[in-house]
């Protein structure tokens, strides 16, 4: 079994930056280190796959990479020959349902763990790298057969994490309150630690080593403990203490 190599972005767009611009250095370093020349793009979190590919392809072309759209070929064959996989953002429920419908969940996991294929996720693509999608912010516009996801890391992620605005008149639950409610579920439920990635933050994973990168800090929720502020550059390898096993996910 190869070590998983992942780059998990909170989002593709950050205020004041172009598409993927804030993460350009990290993406290029990640792909160059892994000797990638062609990236397989998965646009299933959106409805118009061709339009999404047309948005992504020029960015990677400018950086010197070819981009193939998984929807332009037999998706199973495309994943089997992929040098690297980039799963874009959009609606997490639509993305996961489509991956199940096309029999890609186990295959992508196998390619990452057994063949060492580098994986990049953004927003919804980051959500599905976790054990489950329970901490997505998206509306359940479709119903996947399971909320169990790729399980490439042993904790969940909440992309687009928002801090409480003391000047806001909104009286609904804050993002922190919702995650703490998730952690208050009985032990009968599968509940995972949660890393809240603010816009502009990303997680670099190499095997059981992880580090927070990007331009913004993150928020870490360990069940039973107060939330922790995580600064850019922080080693998060302790979150990978439990060996990832293929049998841990129920697909």
UniProtKB/TrEMBL annotation:
GO molecular-function terms, A-Z: dipeptidase activity; serine-type peptidase activity
EC number(s) from the headed UniProt entry: 3.4.13.21
GO BP annotation list: proteolysis
Enzyme category, top tier: hydrolase
Catalysed reaction, written as an equation: Dipeptidase E catalyzes the hydrolysis of dipeptides Asp-|-Xaa. It does not act on peptides with N-terminal Glu, Asn or Gln, nor does it cleave isoaspartyl peptides
Transmembrane segments: none
Keyword field: Cytoplasm, Dipeptidase, Hydrolase, Protease, Serine protease
Record's GO cellular component terms: cytoplasm
Family: Belongs to the peptidase S51 family.
Protein name as it appears in the record: dipeptidase E
Organism of derivation: Tribolium castaneum
Gene (name only): AUGUSTUS-3.0.2_13780
């Amino acid at each position: 079994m190869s070590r998983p190599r992942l780059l998990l972005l909170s989002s593709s767009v950050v205020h004041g930056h172009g598409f993927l611009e804030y993460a350009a250095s990290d993406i290029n370093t990640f792909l160059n280190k892994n000797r990638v020349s062609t990236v397989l793009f998965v646009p299933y979190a959106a409805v118009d796959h061709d339009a999404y590919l047309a948005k992504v392809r020029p960015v990677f072309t400018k950086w010197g990479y070819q981009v193939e759209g998984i929807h332009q070929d037999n998706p199973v064959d495309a994943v089997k020959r992929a040098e690297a996989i980039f799963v874009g953002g959009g609606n997490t429920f639509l993305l996961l349902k489509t991956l199940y419908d096309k029999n890609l969940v186990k295959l992508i996991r196998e390619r990452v763990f057994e063949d060492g294929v580098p994986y990049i996720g953004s927003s919804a693509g980051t959500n599905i790298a976790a054990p489950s999608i329970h901490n997505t912010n998206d509306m359940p516009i479709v119903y996947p057969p399971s909320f169990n996801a790729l399980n490439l890391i042993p904790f969940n992620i909440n992309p687009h994490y928002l801090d409480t605005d003391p000047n806001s008149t909104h009286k609904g639950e804050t993002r922190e309150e919702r995650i703490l409610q998730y952690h208050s579920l009985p032990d009968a439920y599968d509940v995972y630690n949660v890393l809240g990635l603010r816009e502009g933050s990303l997680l670099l994973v190499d095997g059981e080593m992880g580090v927070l990168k990007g331009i913004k800090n993150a928020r870490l929720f360990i069940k039973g403990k107060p939330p922790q502020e995580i600064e850019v550059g922080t080693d998060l390898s302790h979150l990978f203490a439990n060996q990832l096993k293929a049998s841990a996910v129920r697909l």
